[in-house]
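Lab notebook page, bench 4
Experiment: in silico fold of construct C2
Operator: M.H.
Input chain length: 530 residues
Purpose: comparison with the prior construct
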Amino acid sequence: MLFTSYEFLLFAALLLVGYYLFPRAWQWRLLLVASLVFYWLAGPRYLIFLLLTASSTYAVGRWMDANLRAQETTLTEQRQAWEKEQRKSFKAREKKKRFRMLLLGLIFNFGMLAVLKYTGFAVHNVNRLLHAFGAENTLNIPSLLLPMGISFYTFQSMSYLIDVYREKVSAERHPLKFLLFVSYFPQLVQGPISRYADLGPQLTAGHAFSSRNVRWGLERVLWGYFKKLVIADRALIVIKALLDEPASYRGMYVLMMILLYTVQIYADFTGGIDITVGLSEAMGIRLTENFNRPFLSRSTKEYWNRWHITMGTWFTDYVFYPLSVCKPMQRLSKFSRQHFGNAVGKRIPVYLATVATWFLTGLWHGAGWNFIVWGLLNCLVILVSQECVPLYTRFYRRFPRLNESAVWHGVQAARTVLLMGVIRTLDCYRDVPLTFRLWGSMFTTFNYGDLFNGAVLDLGLGRADWILLLIATAVMFAVSLWGIREPVRAKLDRHPTAEASAVALVFLLIMIFGAYGIGFDASQFIYNQF
């Protein structure tokens, strides 16, 4: 069920009405039924894998929690009988048991994700190796089912399991309440990736009707549809045309792809998040924000602190930090300090953990070498920038006013956006060597006159549509900038007439200029593939 479909609008409207008609103690049950129905409608077979993840995670979490409680009981009972070393040894043994159970849960669930999502990619690469060594027979590439949102709900479930192991949260005792945390439908399509401590209690708490929550939530939903239907799906028409024969569209068209895809993925992704967060807000549920004006970022590192925030913090908390401080990494660091000096030794854990994190981040985005190269290029830019920090420091000491200049900040932000846009075209072209050649063509194929001779009008959009796309994009970014100091909805809330006029205007723009109906294809959200 597409978020952009009429069926979803009816589904969401009926849920919202029913949510506040139900007694507060029963609201979470309605949410659970709605979530399971939503997922079943996407594909009944998908539900099997979601239930496997939920049930296995619930069981392992309960076992670890029970083990921890039994440990505390034993320690209390043996307080007088055991010496300090005995207590310490007992706690270490019990923690190893919990760690083995954690590993079992992680291997089962990440293994299921890996088999479903990456088997075809792995077999394809094995076949390429066999061909390289002269083998004539190759393996058949299986066609496996890929459940909707499996990467999102797997990561969310595994964060819960790790947090139970780390004793940051207690295991949820009610199996259906835990199932709701895993299956909560608004965020199944493209996140955000919520933590149990933030989302779990909210889902089951029950919420009284609040006119402000409903009004603000629906306004955000409407704004999300504006981004998706007026901007993202209109830009997608040109992007698809450029991708029909990518090798034929070189030079200026590659730059056009970079800029258009930057706008399209931002409008598509943030539009979907607005719908998710807005619908949840209308029911009194606050989801973690996933974006914080990434196009104001002055560096790649800052960009990734502002873009897809919940994914970035997941990899930081559950991959980067554990890898950089694990015992093998510390032993390697010690060895490197002794043999190569302190400067090299202290960098090894950070560099290796960063490379591993970005490799997995790329792989998470898709089963293809283009995604892996995308991740490693981001890693390279971040590490090089980190090594250049002393140079930046000396530069700004020499030109102190430059670092305070709004114009210079704008130049840095434009550079970051353009660099991220260049790397991101690996998502579009998918072929790594072709992508590199097309990047080079921007400096060797001088067809920039096509911007002015009408050639771009042959890419699926007429002159009026191009003008509309440019104006709508400018409005989208202007509204974002207007809300830096205070949310736009809070500003409009003080002026009811202006608020009603703005809502009516956005609604009319969607109805008149939205990419839906005869002759249009309201596409699925980009991140639904994960």
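Observations: The chain has a mean pLDDT of 92. The two ends are 16 Å apart (CA to CA).
Next step: discuss at group meeting.
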